[in-house]
Amino acid sequence: MRIVALRERAAGETRVALTPETAKKFIALGAKVAVEAGAGARAAIPDAAYEEAGASVGTAEAVLKGADIVLGVQAPDVDLLGGAKPGAWVAATFDPFQQRDRVEAYAAAGLEALSMEFMPRITRAQSMDVLSSQANLAGYKAVIAAADQYGRAFPMMMTAAGTVQAARCFVMGVGVAGLQAIATARRLGAQVSATDVRPETAEQIKSLGGKPVFAEGLEASGDGGYAAELSDEQKAAQAELVSGHIAKQDIVITTALIPGRAAPRLVSDDQIATMKPGSVIFDLAVAQGGNVEGSKPDEVVERHGVSIMGFSNTPATLGPDASALFARNLYNFLSAFWDEDAGRPVLDEEIGDAVRLTHGGKVVNERLLR
Ligand code: NAD
């Protein structure tokens, strides 16, 4: 069983899907591990650290030769994978709804694409869930980046020269990223409020010291812990709620996503115009179409004196930590299914069918066949 990882090719990607820690653990399971030279460089992991862990380091071609499992953060282009074994697994994020051509190409090449975004939200898969681990870091970074952009202090400061008021921070969308954003803003001393369309988040907001802000009857819980799309009436109720609240905020962090759809629009230009000059909005959904009108990936857009910002790949701004967690998610996934007799992982139906996109030359995932 040969498990390998390549250097990520996507622009701006700093992460790596295998760390010396997980290389060691795969080797302990009986696998041979190889990694492309330089794969960890942008996550502060030198080649020597992989070698010390027992992995071999070489060119992409040498590493891929005879590979059974290829690990990736973002799935590599199929053309890169020529040397892997027929039917080899590729465990990575595939962005399957947006990158349908790539999924088809994997099927045509006879590779088995395992999409880590499709990990089911069940208790036993929590430790395998890259969306959660990366969203957690992204929620943290959104607040840090917004605080840096903001020209004032976050905590209340009582000084001999007078008092500095605490910043007011509003978090929209209280999933994994939103909860971490609340916690981070609170740690920095901001007054935090938050909203979501799943009513169960109200308790979670309170438990972190935030104030829940919910509109009457605004509830849109979807399958598997995800949100559903709002009706037009609900959208209007939400817009009213936001309009009333947002004008008093200094910092707004938006994190709302709906699986398989463009991110919902939560903040309009008219609403931004009511905010105080110097306020900052961080749009964590900017790469999925954006929650905020006018937001652009990797730019600070000034509208009505308000800075609107967001990164195309927020976890990549924390390469070492994001890699450590991503790599552990992949190890937890493959090791949970390790079959000692077969000397390889054998997936069960519940998780295997959820994450497998392609098999035997075909696209097989029911979410893509609907
Ligand atoms: P997500 O990234 O899909 O969405 C972020 C948040 O935005 C969600 O809370 C969603 O309800 C909210 N949202 C969507 N549309 C909105 C709108 N119009 N207005 C306001 N908010 C809106 O969500 P997520 O972070 O992946 O997590 C969602 C839930 O799933 C959480 O409760 C999380 O704890 C749970 N979860 C469980 C597991 C597991 O058990 N293995 C894994 C991951 C997440």
From TrEMBL:
One of its GO terms (molecular function) is NADP binding. SUPFAM superfamilies: Formate/glycerate dehydrogenase catalytic domain-like (SSF52283), NAD(P)-binding Rossmann-fold domains (SSF51735). GO terms for biological process: NADPH regeneration. Keywords: NAD, NADP, Nucleotide-binding, Translocase. Gene3D superfamilies: NAD(P)-binding Rossmann-like Domain. Its EC number is 7.1.1.1. PANTHER family: NAD(P) TRANSHYDROGENASE (PTHR10160), PROTON-TRANSLOCATING NAD(P)(+) TRANSHYDROGENASE (PTHR10160:SF19). Residues 147-310 form the Alanine dehydrogenase/pyridine nucleotide transhydrogenase NAD(H)-binding domain. GO terms for cellular component: plasma membrane. This is proton-translocating NAD(P)(+) transhydrogenase. Belongs to the AlaDH/PNT family. It holds the Pfam family AlaDh_PNT_C. It is an enzyme of class 7 (translocase). The lineage of its organism: Bacteria, Pseudomonadati, Pseudomonadota, Alphaproteobacteria, Sphingomonadales. PROSITE patterns: ALADH_PNT_2. CDD domains: Rubrum_tdh. It comes from Erythrobacter litoralis (strain HTCC2594). Residues 4-138 form the Alanine dehydrogenase/pyridine nucleotide transhydrogenase N-terminal domain. It catalyses: NAD(+) + NADPH + H(+)(in) = NADH + NADP(+) + H(+)(out).
